[in-house]
Design brief:
Helix content: over 70%
Number of helices: 7
Largest sheet: none
Order of helices and strands: HHHHHHH
Low-confidence stretches: none
Mean pLDDT: 90
Distance between the termini: 20 Å
Shape: globular
Radius of gyration: 16 Å
Number of domains: 1
Strand content: under 5%
Number of strands: 0
Structural class: mainly alpha
Length: about 140
């Protein structure tokens, strides 16, 4: 989970620079990040409804896989603003769903009186590599 979460935030940090590298102006590159965030809102609202019927763990693996696949299949091949916008919306959709479903997965395998402690421990342990990556 540490490696996956460390990788899932990379496009959020670098999509503006990547868009400029692909020839998008600095004024329009910001909209690529905005569309990624808008896709993330959709992923955090829509996909958890499917998780209620399909299962949390049955959603977790596919959205993690589709996040990576969207980077490889669309993001690396994107040469225009339209392709970058499609990539950013799809990546935001799948990564937002992953971020939303992680904590309920921990809650599902925990007793009700241990949920808060286990989710807190999970995010506390995940913060150590992030502090190392960012600083």
């Amino acid at each position: 989970m540490i490696i996956l979460l460390a990788g899932i935030f990379g496009p959020y940090f670098y999509v503006i620079q990547y868009s400029q590298f692909r020839g998008v102006s600095a004024d329009l590159a910001f909209y690529v990040l905005s569309s990624m965030s808008a896709g993330g809102v959709g992923g955090r609202i829509i996909i958890p409804f499917f998780a209620d019927t399909i299962g949390l763990f049955n959603i977790l693996a596919p959205v993690a896989f589709l996040s990576g696949l969207s980077c490889l299949a669309i993001g690396l091949r994107a040469r225009s603003l339209a392709a970058l916008l499609v990539f950013s919306v799809l990546y935001g959709l799948f990564s937002g769903a992953y971020i939303t479903v992680v904590a309920p997965c921990v809650a599902q395998i925990s007793k009700i009186d241990q949920v808060g402690a286990r989710v807190g421990i999970m995010y506390s342990l995940l913060s150590i590599p992030y502090a190392r990556i960012l600083f």
